[in-house]
Amino acid sequence: MIDKWLLPGIIFLMTLSLVMSYSLSVYTVLHFHYEDFHFFIRQGATVVIGLLSIFILSRLDPDVWFNRVGFFLFFVFFIMMIAMQMMPPSMVKAVGGAKRWIDLGPFSIAPVEFFKVGFVFFLSWSFARKMTSDEDIPFLSELRLLTPYLIIFGFAVVLIAIFQKDLGQTVVLAFTLVTLFVMAGRSMKFFLVGAITGTIGFVGLILMAPHRMDRVLSWWATVQDPILALFPFEAAQRLHIDGGKEPYQISNSLNAIFNGGFFGQGLGNGQFKLGYVSEVHTDFVLAGIAEELGFLGICIIIFTYLFIIYRLNKIAASLENQKYALFVIGVALLIALSLIVNSYGISGMTPIKGIAVPFLSYGGSQIWANCVAIGMVLMVSKKRILRSDMQFGAKHHQAKSAQAVKGG
Questions:
Q1: pTM recorded for the entire structure
Q2: pLDDT per residue over 155-165, tens digit each?
């Protein structure tokens, strides 16, 4: 029997995404002369496809279909990310020189969203096969064990962070890789070394790209004053930036959040969606929601995400099969990290990464891919060992033991 508690939270978020895709896209609709319900209809179609995907996948036998679906996602969309770099402009949408979407006529698809799910499957499948031992092994042996995965991740970094110029997705995959490695039974010291190495690589990718440096400097210009106040005067003078580009997106995002107050301005009454925060129904959807539904609305959304992550961890804890358990944990990490990276960016705590809020931002690929992930989770949730089953098994074992003693 599937976990029925997980689905209501997903449906709530996607229903809210439908409402906000209509409310927050008003300026874009007017500016580009779209039909009034342009974004609502497209988002609605994606939500229906996503729910159908959840329904179909949840009814499949995981022993037969889990590996097939997972390998399909991993290999097919990895190949698509490579192939689209060589496709003509008529087939691939390029924004700022980055090719991220394949144009399929009435709709487009972002392969990286589906690859993330396939990548989590591949890690869970491979880790369950090669890392079942709990033995404490030397650090260099752990490094050799992880090297093949680092090579695969390196290819993904080139395709996503360099060719697609999408550093946010790379950060999410990196943390997922290292965390799953530790969850598979490896040592915490490797996690710390991996985190340090990842941070160095992250800084290197920023220094390689001028547009990322501009984004970081823009963010630093916003937050530098309260931080530098803690430094000695000479150090603060050296670190202070003058004349940087105005971080209008972050400033307007913060103003939208502030303008919402506790209860919000009311659905449809937001002001900063009128051209002040561009594409507010996508990456800045939380800022738009904060203005219209207020702090209370954001609290309800965060509580819903926490409940979803709690249910995912609950499912993982009740699965005996390590492959299934690691996959469910990986899906929870994808959702949690994407939410953290986006919310930190729109609130000015970190530079903007341009990553969608799972199930909530406008965008067909991210919603469909996340629904596929949830469908696979519900598929394997049928293999849970419930507390009642364990208690029954223990009582049955005790009864058989008692009978054996009497017979003896």
A1: 0.86
A2: 888 888 778 87
